[in-house]
Design goal:
Layout: H1 3-20, H2 30-43, E1 48-49, E2 58-64, H3 69-76, E3 85-91, E4 102-105, H4 113-119, E5 126-129, E6 141-145, E7 152-157, H5 158-163, E8 167-168, H6 170-175, E9 177-179
Parallel strand pairs: 2-3, 2-4, 4-5, 5-6, 7-9
Antiparallel strand pairs: 1-8, 6-7
Helix pairs in contact: 1-2, 2-3
Length: 181
């Protein structure tokens, strides 16, 4: 997909994400917030360069733990990711993640996030979560909600991603807070 098309797609996706979230905290936003995080996770392969030797024709998206994202991901997984065949696997343990390309680590795993990241440490695997502080703890992509609930935030840990041989496209990096230390 050409650079310009990807840039427009990402900008449109993120503007929809921002517009769909309520501006006031008095309106419950848990359902839309989780749905938007699921869409961002599902579309992340479009903005990622993966390590050499990693299959590029099929994307295996995995979800570890329990979270409201599961149901949305199940419905999203029925469609290909912009021409790539995709599959979703719901994991009960990190041992089941050996073939995964992207793993969303649910908040239910927050107490053991360091151990989970250590077990998932392998080339080409992208780790994603909405656990606060995930990127600073060694995860690659943290999805959060901005202050005053004005849209989603993306935090990318480039040190962790480079260790795994993963790079993110410039369009995504421009929209994210980047940890490069």
């Amino acid at each position: 997909m050409p650079f310009r098309v990807r840039a427009v797609l990402l900008a449109a996706l993120l503007s929809c994400v921002t517009a769909a979230l309520p501006a006031r905290a008095q309106t419950p936003a848990a359902a839309p917030e989780q749905a938007l995080k699921a869409v961002l996770f599902y579309k992340l392969p479009l903005f990622t360069y993966r390590a050499p030797g990693v299959r590029h024709d099929t994307v295996l998206l995995c979800h570890l733990g329990r979270s409201p994202l599961e149901q949305t991901l199940v419905s999203l997984a029925e469609a290909p990711v912009e021409g790539l065949a995709s599959q979703l696997r719901l994991l009960r343990s990190t041992h089941e993640a050996r073939d995964c390309n992207f793993v969303f680590i649910a908040r239910s795993e927050a107490d053991r996030v360091a151990a989970v990241l250590a077990e998932l440490n392998r080339p080409g695997l992208v780790t994603v979560s909405d656990i606060p502080g995930f990127a600073r703890s060694g995860g690659m992509v943290e999805l959060g909600v901005r202050e005053r609930r004005e849209g989603l935030s993306i935090i990318i840990n480039r040190v962790a991603s480079r260790k795994a041989g993963v790079e993110f496209m410039a369009q995504l990096l421009r929209l994210a807070e980047v940890i490069d230390e």
